[in-house]
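Repro case for the chain-ordering regression, as requested:
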Amino acid sequence: MQYSHTTGAGIIINAHKKLFDFKLIHWHDKTRIPEMDLLVEFRTDSENNTSVVYIKSSKYQEFSQDSIIKERDFWKTQTDEELEKLEIAVFEGLVEQTYKKTDYAILNNIKPSISVDSFIEYHFENETNIINHANDLPTDGYEILDYRIVARFLMRTLDTLVYAEKRITKDTFSMYLQLYSKLQYYTTAYYKASQDTAKVFSEIFLVQQLYFASAKQKIINLNDDILQNEHKWRNLKSQINILNNRILNHQVKNVAETQSKIDDLSKQMKETNNFIAKLEQTKARIQKLMQLFIAQQKKEFIAKFEIKKAEIFKLIKDAINITITSLDNRIWQLGMQSEPIKNHFFKLQSSFSFCILAFIQQYIKTLDSSKLSDADRLLNIYITRYKERNTKKILLISNDEKMKFKLKIEILSLYKNFMVTSISKKMEYEILITNHKFDFIIMDMNIAENLADMVAFGKSKRLNKNAEFIVYDF
Amino acid sequence: MEEMELEEFLASYKNISETTVITREGEEIFVFTRDIDELLALLESEKCTEK
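-- result from build under test --
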C-alpha cells in the first residue's frame, strides 16, 4: 500500500498486481493510520471497479518462519476472515496429525509445543519492533518530552508549520506519524484490555498449544466413544430384557437356545461395560494431564507474562516519548529554516523557537491561573519545571531591528530551548534585568554611549550577577 | 580569546577586530565580538555544557 498524508489518498496493489485507489474517508480502522507497505483488507463497490469503498489494516502483518500460515496465503485470500479460517484449518490438520501419532493409552505427560518464553517473545514481536524503531530515532541530547502532557499540542504545531510552509507536507513526517499512531494504539484501554494475562493464557496461549489441542480432541472423541458404547450397552440390556420376558411368558420354543443368546448378550454387555470403564479411565487420565498442563503452564505463564507486559508497557511509554521528542526536534529544525515561519510566527511573537514548547506557552498565556483545570494545572507545572531544567534565557538589546531579528532567528536555530527576549530601550533593559534572570545578555555596541555602565548596572543586580554579557558590533 | 582592560577597550574598540574578553581589574565584564559566528559559538558552548 502507498499513501500520502497530504492528499489523504492512497493506492493498493493486489496479488494480480491490479491497482486500486482509496481515500482516507474509506479508511475504517481506529487502530492504525494508513502507511506504506501495510497489508490491508479492502472492498470495492463493484467487481470491475478499482475505487475502494472500505479499507482497514489486516491483522496479519508479519509472517515469521514459525507461523503456520505464510505471506503467500495472505495474497491468496481476500479477507482476514478467510485467512483466519485457513489458519484454523492448517492448525486443525496439525492437531489431527499429532492426534493420530499419539498413543493416549501410554501418554503420561502433555508437553508444550511452544514454550512460555517463545510464546511471549512472539506475542510481543510487533510491539518490540516498533519500540526498537522508536528508540533508534535521534533526540540530540534534548530532554525527552512527556507525551501525556504535550501530545495535545503536537498537531497544532505540525499543522501551523504545514499550513505556513507550503514546501513542507505532512508526508515529510509520515515516518514519525506512523510510529506515533502505532504506539498510541498500544496506550489505548482497548489494547491494554486485550493483554489481560488470564485472557491471553486461555484464549491464545492454550489454543496454540498443539499437544494440548490434540489431547482436547482426544477427549471429544472419547466422549463420542463413551456415548456410543453406552448406547450399545442400553441396547444390549433392552434385548436381554425382551428375551427374559419372553422366557417368563412362555413365548419361546427353545428356552435353552434363548438362554444361550441371553448369556452371549450379557457377555457383550459386560465387555461393553468394561470398555466404557476403560474409556472413562483414559478420559480421566487425559483430563488430569490437561489440568496438570494448565496448572504448570499457567504458573510460569502468569509470572513471566506479567513481567514482560509491564516491561513492554513501560517501553511503549518511553518509545512514544522519544518519538514525540524526535518529531518535535524535526519540526523545530524545519520550522526555523522556513521563511514563512520566520515572517509570520516570529513577527507576531515568539520568545521561543518553533516547537511544541512555544505553542504550550501561547496556550498558557491565555489561561486564568486561578481557574486552571486539572490538566492545565499539570501542564503548567510540567512546563515550568521543563523550562527550569532546560531553557536558556537570552536578553537581546539593539535598535537595529533587522539585525536583532536575524540574530534572534540564528540563536533560536542553534538550540531548541533557547528563549530570546528582544528589546530596544534602555528603560526596558533596566526593568527586565532587575526582575528577571537571564543566562546571556547580548547588547548591540551602539545601543547607548554609556554601554559599560549598562553592563555594570546589569551585573549589580542579584538575579544577573552571574549572567554572561556579550557585546557585539557587526 | 584575548583579554583587554575596559579602559583600554573604550579608548580603542573601533580598532579591535578579534573577539576579546573585556575585564576590569582582571575580572571579566563582557565579551566583545564583531563576528556573529563567534557570538553563536559562545552560546553553543554554553548549551552543550548544560545538556
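Ordering looks correct now. Helices of chain B lie at 6-12, 36-50.
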